[in-house]
Amino acid sequence: MGRKNVGEMVVVLVTLLHIWLVCVTASSLGNINNYEEHLRRNLLANGLGKTPPMGWNSWNHFSCQIDEKIIRQTADALVSTGLSKLGYTYVNIDDCWAELNRDNKGNLVGKKSTFPSGIKALADYVHSKGLKLGIYSDAGYFTCSKKMPGSLGHEFQDAKTFASWGIDYLKYDNCNNDGSNSTVRYPVMTRALAKAGRPIFFSLCEWGQMYPALWGAKVGNSWRTTNDINDSWESMISRADLNEVYAEHARPGGWNDPDMLEVGNGGMTKNEYIVHFSLWAISKAPLLLGCDVRNVTKETMEIVSNKEVIAVNQDLLGVQAKKVRMEGDAEIWAGPLSGYRVAVVFLNRGPQKHIDITANWNDIGIPPKTVVQARDLWEHKTLKTPFVNKLRATVESHACKMYVLKPVA
Ligand code: GLA
Which amino acids bring their CB within 6 angstroms of ligand 1? Predict the structure, then answer.
């Protein structure tokens, strides 16, 4: 066979593979749609997540090194720092909380050496502080750490266990599965949770593999759109980008999730963490702190307790912002808020010391000639002049400005 023929065959094979992949995706999405038509609009319908969830998760800071003391002390710290009053109420335990073996009835059990009082006691404690407890499992045979079992094949039993313990939030990972599509495995847990008798926020952690933005709202309350974040500018900003393309799919009850916050973990500058928090807030992402709240610094507190930025995230309109203008390293992200207001982030994502960025009303969805009052959310100042047609700002390298614009005439 000549070189050309081999080349042509490779092209044909790649095309066939592509067609097959598209068909497989379409048919499994079809499964969900058919299922939904026969039953109800939303498999889950648990009424949760009307605004993006806020709280803390153990993974980004502690990885597998967790125990009940850390979880209790974190709950205490969320209250004593005042963070819980600002809305950070979910205390979420990630991977590594369970024994590798189920008990003789097939139930998951908390790891004796690190969670000796059991998860139910922890839930009672967290509830006594006015907070909620989240837990973690996996739509596979083992979780990603392989240190505990997953829930594949045990969905109904595990959902019942979680409900009996008083769990309020389930993060459901995608490791070590049987090779079937997430569109098949995740709805099983959705049905199990719906049957378990307790409203449990359902967070799909399938890393964006099968485009969960397209089906997640029928199955869960949030869905990861990317693989894992790490505590660096590049990782953070690329997760924000990947998540942005799905903006239209976010809505009250179901949110795009670009992964948990790294603010306070030490890998970025203060300005970079401000960008991180601003982009997550305007993108209506879950605001799950990933630092050690027990030892939170003044600087971190200043960022994560910015009430005005949190209010953008928690606005009841629930519309995720989009990039509306990109010029080199200068970007404008904007999205509507209730009361005809608009939230805007001006971002300098490059090395240039200062960039002048101008938002025209046209770009950000404000009718021309509207007179607008601009509130700077990081300076906590209402700018003196009302603005007509545009707003201009100078933004430092790896930094942003964030405003709420309110029409006044
Ligand atoms: C995956 C998830 C992470 C974390 C780890 C735990 O990588 O995406 O968020 O839960 O597993 O092992």
Answer: 59, 94-95, 143-145, 173, 205, 228
